[in-house]
Amino acid sequence: MILTTNNQNGFEILWRSANTVRPWKHSPKINISELTLKQIFSDSLTDTPCVYLNKEREVHIATEMCVQYLESSVDSIVIRDDEHKPLGMVGGYDLLKYIRANPTRDSQYDAKVKDAMSKNLLVVEKDMTFQNLMEKWCASRRAFAITPNAFQGYSPISARKMLEVGIKCKTDVSISSMPKKKLITFQPDDSLSKIVDLMFKHNTRKLLLEYSDQFISDRLILKEISKLLKFQPDVDNFLEVPINQLELENVTVIREDLGLDHLCAKMYEMEHPYVIYKDISVTPWDICNMLLSEKISESYEMESSERIVCPHCGKGFKI
After folding, report:
1. pLDDT, tens only, 66-83
2. pTM above 0.70, yes or no
3. CATH 2.40.420.20 for the 175-300 domain, yes or no
């Protein structure tokens, strides 16, 4: 490279600055539990708006909407009053709980969504720490919260969003070291009533078909009920529907013992994240629990905000 006299000093300054040894040059690892939501997610914390439904709308509308949004970054529907004030939320748990008590077709059309919603809607500020949020989720077993955004509304924070955190955790922890939990299974001749009972008994949103890699979830159950409402008017009691009538999905089977960051990256790309490695099943909720463990807490990498400015063009770049 040929340098003129005029830019020699400028280049030397830039070269020396770029090659100065800094302990934080490769992104410092810090304790994630002490970070606020704003520090972790920055502007992406509020880049997705909540999905809303008025409290006076019918339950069948919430059923249809949850088919579209469950397990996404939205995950639950926020219920509002006429003044747009959040009153509660409706997700798969709430609708299945309602259907257990009211399994008929008429109940989907006659009842209002306010009758099926949960009033325990968690509203958080951006300065809440990650650990505080996780503790509240663990206590309620509902991985959902909303936070005010710049558009006079709210943005959702769900378990799926925490996959973004796992992607930035540089640790030796892999999927094989994650806690094992009993895989809850069902039989192909079970009724929908028995499936729902199993979900509530074991506090799970997914069940595996025994001796297979197929599963049923709250989303798939609501999808079937939505289809029955539209196309099978002769079916009145949804809980009597045989499970072999429902469309199941295949769980993603992982063959390689992936590290936590690669596992989260893979799950982040899935429309409905759910994987199995040998006898270990992993959902976004399992990732939330893992992020609270001592093995993970101090492995989060923050992007360096230090910049160098070129003395000639004035452009800056991160180092």
Report:
1. 999 999 889 999 999 999
2. yes
3. no
- 80-116 burial, b at 16+ Cβ within 10 Å, e below that, comes to beeeeebebbbbbbbbbebbeebbebebbeeebbbeb
pLDDT over threshold 90, residue 46: yes
- For the chain, residues classed under CATH 3.10.580.10 are 31-158, 175-300
Contact 143, 285 (CB under 8 A): yes
